[in-house]
Amino acid sequence: MPPSDPRAFAAVDLGASSGRVIVGRVTARSVGLDEVHRFPNLPVRVGGTLHWDVLALYRGVLDGLRAAGRVTSVGIDTWAVDYGLLAADGSLLGNPVHYRDARTEGVPERIRRTVPQAELYAATGVQHAPFNTLYQLAAAQGTPQLEAAARLLLMPDLISYWLTGVAGTELTNASTTQLLDPRTGDWAYALAGRLGIDLSLFPPLRRPGDPAGELLPEILEATGLEHPVPVVTVGSHDTASAVAGVPADSERFAYISCGTWSLAGVELDAPVRTEDSRAANFTNELGVDGTVRYLRNIMGLWLLQECLRSWRAAGLPHDLGRLLVQAAQAQPLRSVVDAADPGFLAPDSMPDRIAESCRRTEQPVPRDQAETVRCILDSLALAHRAAIEDAQRLSGRHVDVVHIVGGGARNELLCQLTADACGLPVVAGPAEAAALGNVLVQARAAGVIEGGLADIRALLRATQPLRHYEPAADRSRWNKAVARTPGAKDTVRT
After folding, report:
1. Between 20 and 30 A from 14 (CA), which of 29, 257, 367, 434?
2. Before 430, cis peptide (omega within 30)?
3. The predicted structure's pLDDT at residue 389
């Protein structure tokens, strides 16, 4: 396509706190994004169970596609591990349960009595997290909904099914379930059989770039789009799309996809399933073009988001820009917490839980909001450092630069602290890496661009604004702070 004739692609990007529909306009030499609709993602607690309001999300998707105008295709990415159950007639059997719900408490311990953790890791390469799909399904065994289910669809596949009437299971998201063998790219049938999990509930696997159907006539009517509009399978786990959107110029890079969660690691050609890797709680998730996302999950900006929500509810100042300026002036590394502490997983009362963690580890309790913010950002930088150092040690892949993509790329203080903690240069951006990865996989499927990940990344380097951060020469304060966070290397994933 000549530069004057861009094609438009709609990226449906659903995150833990909001959803967006973003239109990407692409030629062989340019790519630009336009967010046409944003809507909240507000979980709902009913009868003691925390659910996703998936019908509200779907309405937001339709509103966004209506605002998008004429597009060549649509691609969908969301968070991982959660799913919806369908009856034989295709109807939804209840709103999907949120991964932060407590229904899996005690389930991992029960599973380990049947399949020890080392065997689980050897079979799937997925790190332990109490909310993995495997544990959610084990928790649901014997429930009326699971007994009645004819089909299970992971969240992006559920949205795709409602748009097209065609069911499939996208590979990068399937690899987060702890039910897939990353070596073969197929289900771990023997493992599922031992645990009584029926893999026939999942529709056939499909890969980024595969067709996923076309918008149904009633969807075209509801959105005003013109037939035909194909839906293209993208890296439907948002981190898979985000890593595809990392503007690296060689394989010697680490990435941090930084948003509600920080997913930090390296890109490999094959999984690492050693006992040392399991003990370090690293996961092997599949990426675009047959890559492996070897990473550790860190609690991420969830800590900051929840503090802001608590302060807003209490009528306290909660302007993030002002708080970040004050945090930059606060004493560095005065107090740090373990960003992987499961005590931070649930919502509500985050400032109090951070204060209690400081008390428990005999560190000064933050005296005000700015010190709380500085504690969070220092702690995240330490967790980023630990993950990147461990990823290099365990994989044998040396890195020269750290790429921060996602919303965290806009947080200048966090980017600089990460560079200082890691002792490596940081390249920040693009902030919309997931949407870019989504759009560019669609554009490649449509023949607008060609090549592999290296070509996609070259296009991003040429077109996206990036910011560079050089590390401070002295890392001694960071080295001392590591001793105060003994759990900094034990983390969980979504």
Report:
1. 29
2. yes
3. 97
**What local confidence, expressed as pLDDT, does residue 487 receive?**
58
Are 149 and 16 members of one domain? yes
Task: Tally the domains of the chain.
Answer: 2
One domain, residues 344 and 376: yes
Residues 109 and 179 occupy one common structural domain: yes
Give the structural domain span for 397: 246-429+466-494
Pair (219, 251) in one structural domain = no
The whole-angstrom separation of Cα 390 and Cα 489 is: 8
Question: Residue 371's pLDDT is what?
Answer: 98
Query: Taking the chain (494 residues) in consecutive chunks of 10 residues, what is each chunk's mean pLDDT?
Result: 72 95 97 97 96 98 98 98 98 96 96 96 94 97 97 98 98 98 96 97 98 98 96 98 98 96 97 96 97 95 96 95 98 94 88 96 96 98 97 98 97 98 98 97 98 98 98 93 67 42
Domain boundary among 202, 232, 262: 232
Known catalytic residue at 378: no
pLDDT for position 486: 56
Q: What is the pLDDT of residue 493?
A: 40
Contact of 224 with 66, CB cutoff 8 Å: yes
- pLDDT at 199 (0 to 100): 98
Position 460 in a domain: no
CATH of the domain at 42: 3.30.420.40
| First-to-last C-alpha distance (Å) of the chain | 37
What is the C-alpha to C-alpha distance for residues 264 and 256, in angstroms, rounded to an integer?
4
Q: Which of 82, 238, 341, 420 is catalytic?
A: 238
Distances 196 to 21, 115, 122, 192, 193 between C-alpha atoms, Å: 38, 12, 19, 6, 5
Phi, psi dihedral angles at 400 (to 5 degrees) = -110, -15
Residue 239 lies in a domain: no
Interatomic CA distance for residues 247 and 268, integer angstroms = 16
Domain boundary among 232, 258, 284: 232
Cβ(237)–Cβ(77) below 8 Å: yes
My answer on whether 142 and 257 are in the same domain is no
pLDDT of res. 343 = 86
